[in-house]
């Protein structure tokens, strides 16, 4: 069918009207936001930048936010309470510049174009921190914190304890969720995904490996020889040394040190009194002197701290220092010198038998010859002994042919050709300054018979 001239005129007029109408609307959207434009949950379609800014500020300044944990309502607050304010103009201008007013028709039948409003947010960090702290103090009260998976060190089984998921709210996540909710204009802000999470879980391979290694170490067999004394370190003792912290297995040095000193207290012979079967007085208790041996704590602590974490059975001979190392227990053995101050007599025992004996002269009172378990620590020919006389002022210098010091103060055994007699009570008015005066002939024989290190028991 052919169109009449009139029909063409009507169609033309209609086209002009449509084009004119579309143009008019397009011109309107040159200064207004296109349809379906949404910012912070507010539709600003058809509004100018100024109008949209007023509408948005009105909403956010009056809007209240409800904080929830799943279905539980916690509190209600405003953005201002949390330290937030807004300036939407820069954001709105940016959005407007990105829009083309001539495309309004496509937007009319399209979906909402939602724009995040983070750039419009002004945050007072101090106020927000204060709000977060105060809020979480209330929210987290009486809540259970999450607990990391860990190794139980108290039961000495070193079992892996599974992590516990608590319901306390994490501070950093709380801030993130609240800020996002306010940015998006969410009336309800839910913290259901903001629980503090365990930092270490039972699936952690490092933790699993450590638990296995701890059990291996805890079951080590450690055999000790302390100068011939056999010692088996109890497993419970080893287990009490073990520690685990942030991926590192180590030993509690204080606990290891305590054990080493327990060994010392039990086995050391140094600095302990001696029960001694004397020649004339029978069984007596003699004070400790310089004779005896002891475990070296520095060596043993260092060795245990190094060897135990390796997780392998091992045997060790303790490092010991001192004299009389051939004696396992507190004893002078069967070869020694006995000096009896009451009897003013000295005996040399070799393999349990007296081979040399003599009267002696000890210290003149109030000077004293120290009792104790001593040892000849040096032998010297033609020495000159020096010190102060009994008046405490004048000095003496006595040359001797044979000198054998026995303690740490200068007391020793030596010949004394100036003494006319020995034994009895001669020492009370003609005694020494502390040394053991010995007849020259006997002293020469004694000197040539004994060796350095022989114990000297002075009772």
Automatic annotation (TrEMBL):
Keywords: Cell shape, Cell wall biogenesis/degradation, Membrane, Peptidoglycan synthesis, Transferase, Transmembrane, Transmembrane helix. Pathway: Cell wall biogenesis; peptidoglycan biosynthesis. This is ErfK YbiS YcfS YnhG. The keyword Nucleotide-binding does not apply. GO terms for cellular component: extracellular region. CDD domains: YkuD_like. It comes from the Bacteria. GO terms for molecular function: peptidoglycan L,D-transpeptidase activity; transferase activity.
